[in-house]
Design a protein that fits this description.
Shape: globular
Distance between the termini: 25 Å
Strand order of the largest sheet: 29-30-32-31-33-34-35-36
Structural class: alpha+beta
CATH class of one domain: Alpha Beta
CATH architecture of one domain: 3-Layer(aba) Sandwich
Helix content: 10-25%
CATH superfamily of one domain: Alpha/Beta hydrolase fold, catalytic domain
Low-confidence stretches: none
Radius of gyration: 25 Å
Number of helices: 10
Largest sheet: 8 strands, mixed
Length: 633
Protein backbone atom coordinates (compact mmCIF):
# COMPACT_ATOMS: atom_id res chain seq x y z
CA UNK A 1 0.00 0.00 0.00
CA UNK A 2 1.17 3.53 -0.81
CA UNK A 3 0.34 6.84 0.80
CA UNK A 4 -2.08 9.46 -0.43
CA UNK A 5 -0.57 12.78 -1.53
CA UNK A 6 -2.19 16.07 -2.42
CA UNK A 7 -0.84 15.74 -5.95
CA UNK A 8 -2.47 12.35 -6.31
CA UNK A 9 -5.81 13.90 -5.36
CA UNK A 10 -5.78 16.93 -7.63
CA UNK A 11 -4.02 15.40 -10.63
CA UNK A 12 -6.77 12.86 -11.19
CA UNK A 13 -9.38 12.72 -13.91
CA UNK A 14 -13.14 12.25 -13.71
CA UNK A 15 -15.72 10.93 -16.21
CA UNK A 16 -18.66 13.16 -17.07
CA UNK A 17 -21.89 13.02 -19.10
CA UNK A 18 -21.89 9.52 -20.60
CA UNK A 19 -24.00 9.25 -23.77
CA UNK A 20 -25.35 5.87 -24.83
CA UNK A 21 -26.09 5.47 -28.54
CA UNK A 22 -29.62 4.37 -29.51
CA UNK A 23 -28.27 0.98 -30.62
CA UNK A 24 -27.13 0.28 -27.05
CA UNK A 25 -23.60 -0.67 -28.16
CA UNK A 26 -21.71 2.57 -28.56
CA UNK A 27 -20.95 4.77 -25.57
CA UNK A 28 -19.19 8.12 -25.31
CA UNK A 29 -18.20 10.11 -22.24
CA UNK A 30 -16.23 13.25 -21.42
CA UNK A 31 -12.95 12.79 -19.56
CA UNK A 32 -12.08 15.85 -17.51
CA UNK A 33 -9.12 16.66 -15.26
CA UNK A 34 -9.88 17.35 -11.61
CA UNK A 35 -7.88 20.58 -11.68
CA UNK A 36 -7.18 23.29 -14.22
CA UNK A 37 -3.59 24.21 -15.08
CA UNK A 38 -4.08 26.95 -17.69
CA UNK A 39 -6.69 29.49 -18.69
CA UNK A 40 -9.04 26.76 -19.91
CA UNK A 41 -10.07 23.26 -18.91
CA UNK A 42 -8.93 20.77 -21.55
CA UNK A 43 -11.23 17.76 -21.86
CA UNK A 44 -11.64 14.96 -24.38
CA UNK A 45 -14.25 12.50 -25.59
CA UNK A 46 -13.72 8.77 -25.10
CA UNK A 47 -15.59 6.25 -27.23
CA UNK A 48 -16.09 2.47 -27.09
CA UNK A 49 -18.23 -0.31 -28.51
CA UNK A 50 -19.37 -1.74 -25.17
CA UNK A 51 -21.32 -4.43 -26.99
CA UNK A 52 -18.20 -5.53 -28.87
CA UNK A 53 -14.51 -5.29 -27.98
CA UNK A 54 -15.15 -2.69 -25.24
CA UNK A 55 -11.82 -0.99 -25.95
CA UNK A 56 -11.87 2.73 -25.20
CA UNK A 57 -10.27 5.13 -27.64
CA UNK A 58 -9.73 8.85 -27.57
CA UNK A 59 -12.22 10.33 -30.01
CA UNK A 60 -10.88 13.88 -29.63
CA UNK A 61 -7.68 15.48 -28.39
CA UNK A 62 -7.05 17.10 -25.00
CA UNK A 63 -6.52 20.55 -26.51
CA UNK A 64 -10.00 22.02 -26.12
CA UNK A 65 -13.01 22.06 -23.83
CA UNK A 66 -15.33 19.46 -25.29
CA UNK A 67 -18.71 18.57 -23.84
CA UNK A 68 -22.32 17.47 -24.32
CA UNK A 69 -21.97 14.43 -26.61
CA UNK A 70 -25.24 13.59 -28.40
CA UNK A 71 -25.95 10.73 -30.85
CA UNK A 72 -27.89 10.76 -34.08
CA UNK A 73 -30.96 8.51 -34.24
CA UNK A 74 -29.11 5.96 -36.40
CA UNK A 75 -26.12 5.76 -33.99
CA UNK A 76 -23.71 6.58 -36.83
CA UNK A 77 -22.87 10.16 -35.91
CA UNK A 78 -21.78 11.83 -32.69
CA UNK A 79 -22.44 15.53 -32.17
CA UNK A 80 -20.67 17.50 -29.44
CA UNK A 81 -19.58 20.99 -28.37
CA UNK A 82 -15.97 22.12 -28.67
CA UNK A 83 -14.09 25.41 -28.43
CA UNK A 84 -11.12 24.15 -30.47
CA UNK A 85 -11.50 26.98 -33.02
CA UNK A 86 -11.76 29.80 -30.46
CA UNK A 87 -11.13 29.03 -26.79
CA UNK A 88 -14.10 29.91 -24.65
CA UNK A 89 -16.57 29.89 -27.56
CA UNK A 90 -18.17 26.49 -28.12
CA UNK A 91 -19.44 25.33 -31.50
CA UNK A 92 -21.28 22.20 -32.60
CA UNK A 93 -19.01 19.55 -34.14
CA UNK A 94 -19.79 16.27 -35.80
CA UNK A 95 -17.79 13.04 -35.60
CA UNK A 96 -18.69 10.56 -38.34
CA UNK A 97 -17.84 7.04 -37.21
CA UNK A 98 -17.32 5.86 -40.77
CA UNK A 99 -14.11 7.86 -41.20
CA UNK A 100 -13.44 9.39 -37.74
CA UNK A 101 -13.57 12.83 -39.37
CA UNK A 102 -14.48 15.75 -37.08
CA UNK A 103 -16.18 18.72 -38.76
CA UNK A 104 -17.31 22.02 -37.23
CA UNK A 105 -20.98 22.60 -38.06
CA UNK A 106 -21.49 26.07 -36.62
CA UNK A 107 -19.62 29.36 -36.49
CA UNK A 108 -22.01 31.25 -34.24
CA UNK A 109 -20.10 34.21 -32.85
CA UNK A 110 -21.86 34.09 -29.48
CA UNK A 111 -21.11 30.38 -29.12
CA UNK A 112 -23.50 27.46 -28.66
CA UNK A 113 -24.87 26.63 -25.19
CA UNK A 114 -26.62 23.34 -25.97
CA UNK A 115 -27.76 21.24 -28.91
CA UNK A 116 -30.13 18.37 -29.73
CA UNK A 117 -30.10 16.29 -32.94
CA UNK A 118 -33.71 15.91 -34.03
CA UNK A 119 -35.64 13.01 -35.55
CA UNK A 120 -35.35 14.82 -38.88
CA UNK A 121 -31.77 13.83 -39.79
CA UNK A 122 -31.18 17.22 -41.39
CA UNK A 123 -31.99 19.30 -38.30
CA UNK A 124 -30.23 20.05 -35.03
CA UNK A 125 -31.90 22.26 -32.44
CA UNK A 126 -29.57 24.76 -30.76
CA UNK A 127 -29.61 27.01 -27.73
CA UNK A 128 -27.52 30.14 -28.21
CA UNK A 129 -27.47 33.80 -27.32
CA UNK A 130 -27.82 36.46 -30.02
CA UNK A 131 -24.73 37.25 -32.03
CA UNK A 132 -23.19 40.68 -31.44
CA UNK A 133 -24.48 43.38 -33.79
CA UNK A 134 -22.72 46.30 -35.43
CA UNK A 135 -24.21 48.49 -32.70
CA UNK A 136 -22.63 46.23 -30.07
CA UNK A 137 -19.28 46.56 -31.85
CA UNK A 138 -19.61 50.36 -31.93
CA UNK A 139 -20.49 50.51 -28.24
CA UNK A 140 -17.47 48.34 -27.38
CA UNK A 141 -15.23 50.52 -29.54
CA UNK A 142 -16.47 53.72 -27.97
CA UNK A 143 -16.62 52.22 -24.47
CA UNK A 144 -20.29 53.14 -24.47
CA UNK A 145 -20.87 50.18 -22.19
CA UNK A 146 -23.18 51.41 -19.43
CA UNK A 147 -25.25 48.45 -18.24
CA UNK A 148 -28.96 49.12 -17.86
CA UNK A 149 -30.32 46.27 -15.77
CA UNK A 150 -33.14 44.52 -17.58
CA UNK A 151 -32.10 45.78 -21.03
CA UNK A 152 -30.09 43.84 -23.59
CA UNK A 153 -29.60 40.98 -21.14
CA UNK A 154 -28.14 37.86 -22.78
CA UNK A 155 -30.71 35.10 -23.19
CA UNK A 156 -30.48 31.68 -24.78
CA UNK A 157 -32.86 31.40 -27.71
CA UNK A 158 -34.02 28.46 -29.78
CA UNK A 159 -32.20 28.11 -33.14
CA UNK A 160 -32.36 25.48 -35.86
CA UNK A 161 -29.30 24.25 -37.74
CA UNK A 162 -30.02 22.88 -41.23
CA UNK A 163 -27.28 20.33 -41.90
CA UNK A 164 -27.88 20.48 -45.68
CA UNK A 165 -27.09 24.18 -45.95
CA UNK A 166 -25.22 24.90 -42.72
CA UNK A 167 -27.60 27.77 -42.06
CA UNK A 168 -28.77 28.65 -38.55
CA UNK A 169 -32.24 30.19 -38.30
CA UNK A 170 -34.04 31.64 -35.29
CA UNK A 171 -37.80 30.93 -35.07
CA UNK A 172 -39.76 34.03 -34.09
CA UNK A 173 -41.43 32.45 -31.07
CA UNK A 174 -41.48 32.58 -27.24
CA UNK A 175 -41.34 36.40 -27.05
CA UNK A 176 -37.64 36.46 -26.31
CA UNK A 177 -37.81 34.24 -23.23
CA UNK A 178 -34.67 32.50 -22.00
CA UNK A 179 -34.70 28.81 -23.03
CA UNK A 180 -33.06 26.48 -20.51
CA UNK A 181 -33.95 23.01 -21.81
CA UNK A 182 -35.53 21.21 -24.76
CA UNK A 183 -36.67 17.65 -25.46
CA UNK A 184 -38.29 16.14 -28.56
CA UNK A 185 -41.24 13.78 -28.28
CA UNK A 186 -40.08 10.16 -28.74
CA UNK A 187 -42.10 9.70 -31.94
CA UNK A 188 -40.32 12.63 -33.59
CA UNK A 189 -43.12 15.09 -32.88
CA UNK A 190 -42.90 18.57 -31.32
CA UNK A 191 -40.21 19.88 -29.03
CA UNK A 192 -40.95 20.62 -25.40
CA UNK A 193 -39.22 23.81 -24.27
CA UNK A 194 -38.65 24.97 -20.73
CA UNK A 195 -38.20 28.75 -20.53
CA UNK A 196 -37.70 31.49 -17.97
CA UNK A 197 -38.28 35.22 -18.08
CA UNK A 198 -34.52 35.74 -18.04
CA UNK A 199 -31.18 34.16 -17.24
CA UNK A 200 -30.99 35.79 -13.81
CA UNK A 201 -30.54 33.03 -11.20
CA UNK A 202 -32.42 34.93 -8.51
CA UNK A 203 -35.59 35.76 -10.43
CA UNK A 204 -35.49 33.34 -13.36
CA UNK A 205 -36.17 29.99 -11.60
CA UNK A 206 -39.50 31.32 -10.30
CA UNK A 207 -40.73 32.28 -13.79
CA UNK A 208 -40.63 28.92 -15.59
CA UNK A 209 -43.09 28.07 -18.37
CA UNK A 210 -43.53 25.10 -20.70
CA UNK A 211 -43.99 25.41 -24.44
CA UNK A 212 -44.41 23.18 -27.46
CA UNK A 213 -42.60 23.98 -30.69
CA UNK A 214 -43.29 22.28 -34.02
CA UNK A 215 -40.12 22.39 -36.15
CA UNK A 216 -42.13 21.55 -39.27
CA UNK A 217 -44.45 24.58 -39.04
CA UNK A 218 -42.33 26.88 -36.90
CA UNK A 219 -45.21 27.48 -34.51
CA UNK A 220 -45.22 27.40 -30.72
CA UNK A 221 -47.83 26.85 -28.01
CA UNK A 222 -47.62 28.06 -24.40
CA UNK A 223 -48.55 25.33 -21.90
CA UNK A 224 -48.44 27.60 -18.88
CA UNK A 225 -46.27 28.03 -15.77
CA UNK A 226 -44.27 25.34 -14.00
CA UNK A 227 -42.98 25.03 -10.47
CA UNK A 228 -39.77 26.77 -9.40
CA UNK A 229 -36.39 25.58 -10.67
CA UNK A 230 -37.92 23.11 -13.14
CA UNK A 231 -35.54 20.88 -15.13
CA UNK A 232 -35.10 17.34 -16.48
CA UNK A 233 -37.84 17.33 -19.15
CA UNK A 234 -39.27 14.01 -20.32
CA UNK A 235 -42.14 12.82 -22.53
CA UNK A 236 -44.09 9.58 -22.18
CA UNK A 237 -47.27 8.07 -23.68
CA UNK A 238 -50.28 7.25 -21.53
CA UNK A 239 -53.74 5.83 -22.09
CA UNK A 240 -55.04 9.41 -22.14
CA UNK A 241 -52.42 10.64 -24.61
CA UNK A 242 -49.01 12.25 -24.23
CA UNK A 243 -47.60 13.37 -20.89
CA UNK A 244 -44.80 15.83 -20.27
CA UNK A 245 -42.92 15.83 -16.99
CA UNK A 246 -40.10 17.57 -15.18
CA UNK A 247 -38.44 17.77 -11.77
CA UNK A 248 -39.05 20.96 -9.79
CA UNK A 249 -39.23 22.30 -6.24
CA UNK A 250 -42.34 21.30 -4.32
CA UNK A 251 -44.48 24.35 -3.50
CA UNK A 252 -44.58 26.43 -1.46
CA UNK A 253 -41.00 25.95 -0.19
CA UNK A 254 -38.54 27.64 -2.52
CA UNK A 255 -35.26 26.20 -1.31
CA UNK A 256 -35.65 22.39 -1.25
CA UNK A 257 -37.78 19.30 -1.73
CA UNK A 258 -37.94 18.18 -5.37
CA UNK A 259 -40.76 16.22 -6.98
CA UNK A 260 -41.69 14.83 -10.40
CA UNK A 261 -44.52 16.87 -11.90
CA UNK A 262 -46.69 15.34 -14.63
CA UNK A 263 -48.69 17.37 -17.17
CA UNK A 264 -51.29 15.41 -19.17
CA UNK A 265 -51.43 17.34 -22.42
CA UNK A 266 -54.94 16.22 -23.30
CA UNK A 267 -56.64 17.42 -20.13
CA UNK A 268 -53.91 19.84 -19.02
CA UNK A 269 -54.17 18.22 -15.59
CA UNK A 270 -51.00 18.59 -13.56
CA UNK A 271 -50.00 16.52 -10.54
CA UNK A 272 -47.13 15.64 -8.26
CA UNK A 273 -46.18 12.02 -8.99
CA UNK A 274 -43.76 11.55 -6.07
CA UNK A 275 -45.66 13.18 -3.19
CA UNK A 276 -45.11 11.56 0.19
CA UNK A 277 -42.13 9.44 -0.84
CA UNK A 278 -39.24 9.16 1.67
CA UNK A 279 -36.71 9.85 -1.10
CA UNK A 280 -36.00 12.66 -3.57
CA UNK A 281 -35.99 12.57 -7.39
CA UNK A 282 -32.76 13.87 -8.93
CA UNK A 283 -33.09 12.90 -12.62
CA UNK A 284 -35.99 12.12 -14.97
CA UNK A 285 -35.16 10.27 -18.19
CA UNK A 286 -37.22 9.79 -21.29
CA UNK A 287 -37.68 6.45 -23.05
CA UNK A 288 -40.16 5.31 -25.69
CA UNK A 289 -42.44 4.18 -22.86
CA UNK A 290 -42.51 5.00 -19.14
CA UNK A 291 -39.67 7.32 -18.06
CA UNK A 292 -36.95 6.35 -15.59
CA UNK A 293 -36.45 8.27 -12.35
CA UNK A 294 -33.26 8.43 -10.26
CA UNK A 295 -33.95 8.89 -6.54
CA UNK A 296 -31.59 9.99 -3.79
CA UNK A 297 -32.52 7.37 -1.21
CA UNK A 298 -30.76 7.92 2.11
CA UNK A 299 -27.08 7.10 1.66
CA UNK A 300 -27.81 5.21 -1.58
CA UNK A 301 -29.71 5.58 -4.85
CA UNK A 302 -32.84 3.93 -6.25
CA UNK A 303 -33.67 3.69 -9.96
CA UNK A 304 -37.39 3.46 -10.68
CA UNK A 305 -39.83 3.40 -13.59
CA UNK A 306 -42.65 5.97 -13.47
CA UNK A 307 -45.68 3.73 -13.94
CA UNK A 308 -49.27 5.06 -14.03
CA UNK A 309 -49.71 4.04 -10.39
CA UNK A 310 -46.47 5.67 -9.28
CA UNK A 311 -42.73 4.93 -9.23
CA UNK A 312 -41.84 1.22 -9.38
CA UNK A 313 -38.34 0.46 -8.07
CA UNK A 314 -36.10 -1.36 -10.57
CA UNK A 315 -32.75 -1.46 -8.78
CA UNK A 316 -30.87 -0.03 -5.81
CA UNK A 317 -27.29 1.17 -6.05
CA UNK A 318 -24.76 1.90 -3.30
CA UNK A 319 -23.79 5.53 -3.00
CA UNK A 320 -24.68 7.79 -5.92
CA UNK A 321 -25.90 7.12 -9.44
CA UNK A 322 -25.50 10.19 -11.65
CA UNK A 323 -25.70 11.33 -15.28
CA UNK A 324 -27.98 8.47 -16.35
CA UNK A 325 -28.25 7.78 -20.08
CA UNK A 326 -30.51 5.21 -21.70
CA UNK A 327 -31.45 3.64 -25.01
CA UNK A 328 -34.84 4.67 -26.46
CA UNK A 329 -36.35 1.36 -25.38
CA UNK A 330 -34.96 1.81 -21.87
CA UNK A 331 -33.48 -1.69 -21.83
CA UNK A 332 -29.84 -0.58 -21.49
CA UNK A 333 -28.57 2.21 -19.27
CA UNK A 334 -25.22 3.76 -18.42
CA UNK A 335 -24.37 6.04 -15.51
CA UNK A 336 -21.62 7.32 -13.26
CA UNK A 337 -21.24 5.45 -9.98
CA UNK A 338 -18.57 4.10 -7.65
CA UNK A 339 -18.18 2.44 -4.27
CA UNK A 340 -16.82 3.12 -0.77
CA UNK A 341 -13.23 2.54 -1.79
CA UNK A 342 -13.50 2.93 -5.58
CA UNK A 343 -13.72 6.22 -7.48
CA UNK A 344 -16.51 7.08 -9.88
CA UNK A 345 -16.50 5.20 -13.19
CA UNK A 346 -18.89 4.61 -16.07
CA UNK A 347 -21.11 1.58 -15.49
CA UNK A 348 -23.61 0.00 -17.89
CA UNK A 349 -26.24 -2.73 -17.91
CA UNK A 350 -29.98 -3.32 -17.63
CA UNK A 351 -32.03 -0.92 -15.49
CA UNK A 352 -32.83 -3.81 -13.15
CA UNK A 353 -29.10 -4.28 -12.58
CA UNK A 354 -26.47 -5.28 -11.94
CA UNK A 355 -24.37 -2.65 -13.69
CA UNK A 356 -20.94 -3.54 -15.02
CA UNK A 357 -17.95 -1.21 -14.59
CA UNK A 358 -16.72 -0.42 -18.08
CA UNK A 359 -14.04 2.19 -17.37
CA UNK A 360 -11.05 2.37 -15.03
CA UNK A 361 -10.42 6.09 -14.80
CA UNK A 362 -8.03 6.15 -11.84
CA UNK A 363 -5.89 3.00 -11.66
CA UNK A 364 -3.27 4.99 -9.72
CA UNK A 365 -5.57 4.75 -6.67
CA UNK A 366 -5.55 0.95 -6.66
CA UNK A 367 -2.65 0.75 -4.21
CA UNK A 368 -3.86 3.46 -1.83
CA UNK A 369 -4.83 2.55 1.73
CA UNK A 370 -8.14 4.18 2.67
CA UNK A 371 -9.76 4.64 6.04
CA UNK A 372 -12.57 2.26 6.98
CA UNK A 373 -15.96 3.80 6.12
CA UNK A 374 -19.32 2.79 7.52
CA UNK A 375 -22.87 4.16 7.57
CA UNK A 376 -24.31 5.66 10.74
CA UNK A 377 -27.97 5.60 11.73
CA UNK A 378 -29.17 7.53 14.76
CA UNK A 379 -32.04 9.65 16.01
CA UNK A 380 -32.21 13.39 16.48
CA UNK A 381 -33.16 14.96 19.80
CA UNK A 382 -36.80 15.14 18.61
CA UNK A 383 -36.81 11.52 17.41
CA UNK A 384 -36.26 12.14 13.69
CA UNK A 385 -34.34 9.34 11.96
CA UNK A 386 -30.96 10.54 10.64
CA UNK A 387 -28.01 9.02 8.84
CA UNK A 388 -24.43 9.82 7.95
CA UNK A 389 -21.01 8.29 7.47
CA UNK A 390 -18.03 7.63 9.72
CA UNK A 391 -14.54 7.31 8.26
CA UNK A 392 -11.82 6.06 10.61
CA UNK A 393 -8.09 6.81 10.39
CA UNK A 394 -6.25 4.62 7.89
CA UNK A 395 -5.34 1.28 9.40
CA UNK A 396 -7.41 1.81 12.55
CA UNK A 397 -10.57 0.28 13.95
CA UNK A 398 -13.11 1.77 16.35
CA UNK A 399 -11.47 -0.05 19.27
CA UNK A 400 -8.28 1.98 18.70
CA UNK A 401 -10.07 5.21 19.62
CA UNK A 402 -10.68 7.79 20.78
CA UNK A 403 -9.40 9.79 17.79
CA UNK A 404 -9.31 13.46 16.92
CA UNK A 405 -12.60 13.98 15.08
CA UNK A 406 -13.35 16.44 12.29
CA UNK A 407 -17.01 16.87 11.36
CA UNK A 408 -17.44 17.99 7.74
CA UNK A 409 -20.90 19.40 6.97
CA UNK A 410 -22.14 19.15 3.37
CA UNK A 411 -23.35 22.09 1.31
CA UNK A 412 -26.73 22.92 -0.10
CA UNK A 413 -28.24 22.38 2.40
CA UNK A 414 -30.22 20.43 -0.21
CA UNK A 415 -27.41 17.97 -0.84
CA UNK A 416 -26.31 14.79 0.92
CA UNK A 417 -23.49 12.47 1.74
CA UNK A 418 -23.82 9.17 -0.10
CA UNK A 419 -22.00 5.95 0.71
CA UNK A 420 -19.25 6.42 -1.89
CA UNK A 421 -15.52 7.15 -1.87
CA UNK A 422 -15.03 10.38 0.07
CA UNK A 423 -11.97 11.71 -1.75
CA UNK A 424 -12.10 15.15 -3.34
CA UNK A 425 -9.91 18.22 -3.84
CA UNK A 426 -11.47 19.97 -0.86
CA UNK A 427 -10.80 18.68 2.68
CA UNK A 428 -12.60 15.36 2.35
CA UNK A 429 -12.88 12.43 4.75
CA UNK A 430 -10.23 10.20 3.18
CA UNK A 431 -7.77 13.10 2.87
CA UNK A 432 -8.03 13.65 6.63
CA UNK A 433 -8.21 9.93 7.48
CA UNK A 434 -4.80 9.38 5.94
CA UNK A 435 -3.45 11.91 8.48
CA UNK A 436 -4.92 10.09 11.47
CA UNK A 437 -8.33 11.74 11.85
CA UNK A 438 -11.72 10.16 12.29
CA UNK A 439 -14.25 12.05 10.17
CA UNK A 440 -17.99 12.40 10.73
CA UNK A 441 -20.13 13.19 7.66
CA UNK A 442 -23.66 13.99 8.92
CA UNK A 443 -26.86 14.26 6.88
CA UNK A 444 -28.93 16.65 9.03
CA UNK A 445 -32.44 17.71 8.13
CA UNK A 446 -32.64 20.09 5.20
CA UNK A 447 -30.76 17.68 2.96
CA UNK A 448 -31.66 15.37 0.12
CA UNK A 449 -32.64 11.72 0.25
CA UNK A 450 -35.44 11.59 2.82
CA UNK A 451 -38.39 13.26 1.12
CA UNK A 452 -39.90 16.70 0.98
CA UNK A 453 -40.77 17.27 4.63
CA UNK A 454 -37.26 16.36 5.76
CA UNK A 455 -35.77 18.81 3.25
CA UNK A 456 -38.17 21.62 4.02
CA UNK A 457 -37.53 21.45 7.75
CA UNK A 458 -34.86 24.16 7.73
CA UNK A 459 -36.77 26.83 5.80
CA UNK A 460 -36.32 29.99 7.84
CA UNK A 461 -34.67 27.92 10.59
CA UNK A 462 -31.13 27.28 9.40
CA UNK A 463 -28.76 26.53 12.26
CA UNK A 464 -31.56 25.44 14.56
CA UNK A 465 -32.57 21.77 14.43
CA UNK A 466 -29.97 20.93 11.78
CA UNK A 467 -27.29 22.04 14.25
CA UNK A 468 -28.63 19.86 17.05
CA UNK A 469 -28.86 16.99 14.51
CA UNK A 470 -25.11 17.32 13.95
CA UNK A 471 -24.32 17.78 17.63
CA UNK A 472 -26.28 14.64 18.52
CA UNK A 473 -24.13 12.64 16.11
CA UNK A 474 -20.92 14.04 17.58
CA UNK A 475 -22.10 13.22 21.11
CA UNK A 476 -22.87 9.68 19.99
CA UNK A 477 -19.32 9.21 18.65
CA UNK A 478 -17.87 10.63 21.87
CA UNK A 479 -20.01 8.26 23.95
CA UNK A 480 -18.86 5.29 21.82
CA UNK A 481 -15.21 6.13 22.48
CA UNK A 482 -14.50 6.97 18.83
CA UNK A 483 -14.18 10.74 19.18
CA UNK A 484 -11.89 12.48 21.66
CA UNK A 485 -14.02 15.26 23.21
CA UNK A 486 -10.91 17.40 23.68
CA UNK A 487 -9.88 17.18 20.02
CA UNK A 488 -12.95 18.12 17.98
CA UNK A 489 -12.84 20.09 14.74
CA UNK A 490 -15.57 21.24 12.35
CA UNK A 491 -15.41 22.14 8.67
CA UNK A 492 -17.59 22.78 5.67
CA UNK A 493 -18.00 24.62 2.39
CA UNK A 494 -20.90 26.80 1.21
CA UNK A 495 -23.84 25.90 3.48
CA UNK A 496 -21.42 23.60 5.30
CA UNK A 497 -19.24 26.67 5.80
CA UNK A 498 -22.26 28.42 7.30
CA UNK A 499 -22.72 25.53 9.73
CA UNK A 500 -19.05 25.64 10.75
CA UNK A 501 -19.25 29.40 11.34
CA UNK A 502 -22.53 28.94 13.21
CA UNK A 503 -21.12 26.14 15.38
CA UNK A 504 -18.20 28.15 16.74
CA UNK A 505 -20.57 30.96 17.70
CA UNK A 506 -22.73 28.54 19.68
CA UNK A 507 -20.15 26.44 21.53
CA UNK A 508 -16.48 26.38 22.54
CA UNK A 509 -16.24 22.59 22.16
CA UNK A 510 -14.31 22.77 18.88
CA UNK A 511 -10.56 23.31 18.90
CA UNK A 512 -10.33 24.27 15.21
CA UNK A 513 -12.72 25.22 12.42
CA UNK A 514 -12.69 25.65 8.66
CA UNK A 515 -15.16 27.98 6.92
CA UNK A 516 -14.88 27.65 3.13
CA UNK A 517 -17.08 29.85 0.90
CA UNK A 518 -19.37 30.05 3.91
CA UNK A 519 -22.49 32.10 4.59
CA UNK A 520 -22.11 34.46 7.53
CA UNK A 521 -24.99 36.90 6.97
CA UNK A 522 -28.23 35.70 5.39
CA UNK A 523 -29.64 39.16 4.80
CA UNK A 524 -26.56 40.27 2.87
CA UNK A 525 -26.59 37.00 0.91
CA UNK A 526 -30.23 37.48 -0.11
CA UNK A 527 -29.26 40.97 -1.29
CA UNK A 528 -26.05 40.16 -3.17
CA UNK A 529 -25.88 36.41 -3.90
CA UNK A 530 -26.93 35.07 -7.28
CA UNK A 531 -29.65 32.92 -5.66
CA UNK A 532 -31.15 35.66 -3.52
CA UNK A 533 -34.72 34.41 -3.07
CA UNK A 534 -33.47 30.89 -2.37
CA UNK A 535 -31.26 32.30 0.40
CA UNK A 536 -34.09 34.44 1.76
CA UNK A 537 -36.21 31.29 2.13
CA UNK A 538 -33.42 29.70 4.17
CA UNK A 539 -32.64 32.73 6.30
CA UNK A 540 -36.31 33.55 6.83
CA UNK A 541 -36.34 37.21 5.82
CA UNK A 542 -34.68 39.98 3.83
CA UNK A 543 -33.26 43.33 4.81
CA UNK A 544 -36.16 45.12 3.13
CA UNK A 545 -38.74 43.47 5.37
CA UNK A 546 -38.94 46.58 7.52
CA UNK A 547 -36.96 47.83 10.50
CA UNK A 548 -34.89 45.08 12.12
CA UNK A 549 -33.82 43.04 13.85
CA UNK A 550 -34.96 40.55 11.23
CA UNK A 551 -35.44 36.79 11.58
CA UNK A 552 -32.31 36.20 9.52
CA UNK A 553 -30.22 38.12 12.05
CA UNK A 554 -30.95 35.42 14.64
CA UNK A 555 -29.57 32.68 12.37
CA UNK A 556 -26.56 34.54 10.95
CA UNK A 557 -23.10 33.62 12.31
CA UNK A 558 -22.03 37.26 12.10
CA UNK A 559 -24.44 38.04 14.96
CA UNK A 560 -22.44 35.72 17.23
CA UNK A 561 -18.91 36.64 16.14
CA UNK A 562 -18.20 38.10 19.59
CA UNK A 563 -18.59 34.63 21.10
CA UNK A 564 -16.04 32.89 18.86
CA UNK A 565 -13.13 31.37 20.79
CA UNK A 566 -12.25 28.65 18.24
CA UNK A 567 -9.34 29.30 15.85
CA UNK A 568 -10.94 29.47 12.38
CA UNK A 569 -9.49 29.23 8.89
CA UNK A 570 -11.53 31.18 6.31
CA UNK A 571 -11.12 30.32 2.61
CA UNK A 572 -12.93 32.08 -0.24
CA UNK A 573 -12.76 32.55 -4.00
CA UNK A 574 -12.36 36.15 -5.10
CA UNK A 575 -14.90 35.78 -7.93
CA UNK A 576 -17.55 33.80 -6.05
CA UNK A 577 -21.02 34.95 -7.17
CA UNK A 578 -22.95 32.26 -5.30
CA UNK A 579 -21.66 33.27 -1.85
CA UNK A 580 -19.84 36.54 -2.60
CA UNK A 581 -16.47 37.31 -1.05
CA UNK A 582 -18.08 40.00 1.12
CA UNK A 583 -19.45 37.22 3.36
CA UNK A 584 -15.89 36.20 4.29
CA UNK A 585 -14.68 39.81 4.57
CA UNK A 586 -17.52 40.59 6.98
CA UNK A 587 -16.64 37.60 9.20
CA UNK A 588 -12.92 38.39 9.06
CA UNK A 589 -13.48 42.01 10.12
CA UNK A 590 -15.73 40.96 12.98
CA UNK A 591 -13.23 38.37 14.23
CA UNK A 592 -10.41 40.89 13.95
CA UNK A 593 -12.49 43.39 15.89
CA UNK A 594 -12.99 40.90 18.73
CA UNK A 595 -9.40 39.65 18.62
CA UNK A 596 -10.40 36.10 17.67
CA UNK A 597 -7.66 33.87 16.25
CA UNK A 598 -8.20 33.28 12.54
CA UNK A 599 -6.54 33.12 9.13
CA UNK A 600 -8.20 34.53 6.01
CA UNK A 601 -7.17 33.25 2.56
CA UNK A 602 -8.52 34.62 -0.75
CA UNK A 603 -8.00 32.70 -3.99
CA UNK A 604 -7.76 35.01 -7.05
CA UNK A 605 -9.79 34.13 -10.17
CA UNK A 606 -11.75 31.46 -8.30
CA UNK A 607 -15.50 31.19 -7.96
CA UNK A 608 -17.61 29.12 -5.59
CA UNK A 609 -15.44 26.09 -6.33
CA UNK A 610 -11.67 26.15 -6.50
CA UNK A 611 -10.48 25.06 -9.96
CA UNK A 612 -6.80 25.90 -10.41
CA UNK A 613 -4.31 23.17 -9.55
CA UNK A 614 -2.02 25.22 -7.28
CA UNK A 615 -5.01 26.57 -5.40
CA UNK A 616 -6.46 23.07 -4.87
CA UNK A 617 -3.09 21.90 -3.57
CA UNK A 618 -2.98 24.87 -1.21
CA UNK A 619 -6.48 24.09 0.10
CA UNK A 620 -5.57 20.48 0.89
CA UNK A 621 -2.24 21.22 2.52
CA UNK A 622 -3.29 24.35 4.37
CA UNK A 623 -6.42 22.86 5.88
CA UNK A 624 -4.74 19.67 7.07
CA UNK A 625 -1.91 21.70 8.60
CA UNK A 626 -4.52 23.89 10.33
CA UNK A 627 -6.12 20.90 12.02
CA UNK A 628 -2.75 19.26 12.72
CA UNK A 629 -1.57 22.24 14.78
CA UNK A 630 -4.65 22.13 17.00
CA UNK A 631 -5.98 18.58 17.09
CA UNK A 632 -2.96 16.32 16.81
CA UNK A 633 -1.44 14.93 20.03
Amino acid sequence: MTGLTAELVVDGRVPRTPALAPNGRLLCYVLSPTSQTGDHLDTSLRLADIGGDGVWRRATTDTATESRPRWSADSRTLYFLSDRAERGTAQVHRLALTDDLVIALTDWRAGIIDHLPLADPDLVALLAEDEPTEEDARRARDRDDAVVVGEREPRARLRLLDLRTGQVTTPDVLDGRHVVELRQRPDGGPLALLTRAGADKDYGPRTGRLHLFDPATGTAEDLGPVEADAHSLAWWPGEDGWHLGCIALTPPVLQAGTAVFDLALGSRARRNRTAGLPMCPTELHQTDAAPLVVFADGLNTTLARLDPDGPAALSRHPGRLDALTTTPAGTVIAALTGARYQPTNVHAGPPTGPLRKITDIRPELDGIAFGSQRPLAYRAADGLDLDGLLVLPVGKSASDGPFPLVTIVHGGPYDRYADRLQLFWFPSAQWLATAGYAVFLPNPRGGQGHGHEFAAGVAGRVGREEWTDILTGIDLLVAEGIADPDRLGIAGGSHGGFMAAWAIGQTERFRAALVSAGVTDWGMLAATGENGQFEAALGGSTGWDGIGPHPHDAVSPISFAGRVRTPVLILHGAQDTNVPLGQAVYFHRALRHFGAEHEFVIYPREGHSIRERHHQLDVLRRTRAWFDRRLRP
